[in-house]
Design brief:
Largest sheet: 2 strands, parallel
Number of helices: 4
Strand order of the largest sheet: 1-2
Helix content: 55-70%
Number of strands: 2
């Protein structure tokens, strides 16, 4: 995605093409480093099952070959639903 954005920016603003390319490369390098750090931490983790508040973490779970168990959204109508929260926690521990 980063490459695609940089490519489009270069087309739209050719005068600054070098800046977009340099920034894209730097950002990709940062993400690669972060990926290495996460992998290093997770290598020592027995279970890759974790509880999340947002479905976006499902993508992260897929990336690390883990499982994200979604907890209730933090909406006003869900706060205080301890039974559902306990059920989710039990599911996560199995």
């Amino acid at each position: 995605m980063i490459e695609a954005i940089a490519c489009e920016m270069c087309k739209l603003d050719e005068a600054n093409k070098d800046i977009y390319t340099k920034n894209a490369e730097a950002y990709i390098n940062q993400l690669d480093e972060l990926d290495k750090q996460i992998s290093s931490v997770l290598d020592n983790v027995k279970s890759k099952k974790f509880i999340v508040y947002h479905p976006a973490f499902g993508y992260f779970a897929e990336e690390i070959e883990g499982k994200a168990v979604r907890l209730l959204p933090l909406a006003a109508d869900c706060i205080g639903n301890l039974k559902k929260m306990a059920e989710t926690m039990t599911e996560a521990m199995q």
